Amino acid sequence: MSDTEVASHRAAVDRLLAAPFAEREDREGEEWSGPGFRLAALTESQAFWEVHDPEVVDAAERRIEAALGTLAAALTGAWGGAPATVELWPYRECDLPDPAAPGPLGFLAGVASELLVWQPSADRWLGLTVGQADPALPFRLLAMVGAGSLPEPPAG
């Protein structure tokens, strides 16, 4: 990933951290916001509708994973602390009562397995992951900002 891409991703993260949360859920383009959260795709690979070569898919996933690693290293260096790695599977049932329309953590649990989490300020946390909603869809570098600290997964 180029220095320009790192700077662009850092600027997007800074914007997400500084932006107010929407009072009502709102999805605009690659961003989703609501009370206490913002979720955005920072970059994505190609889609795989017509791609049948596993090497092409693997290479695309490695590029997005590398972008995650480079951005994580930049944030860790800037903030002076390594992120916590959080398993997302416990959040799969999060944000119910309507499992057909999961909230942001439930969505992330449906497209990714782990979330790198930082607490850059007392009132906001940041999570980064690579997600893919379907094998035909692109891999995405996803950033989520939440109010307070990352909520505990539901007991159960």
TrEMBL record:
Q: What is the protein name for this chain?
A: Uncharacterized protein
Q: Which species is listed as the source?
A: Kitasatospora aburaviensis
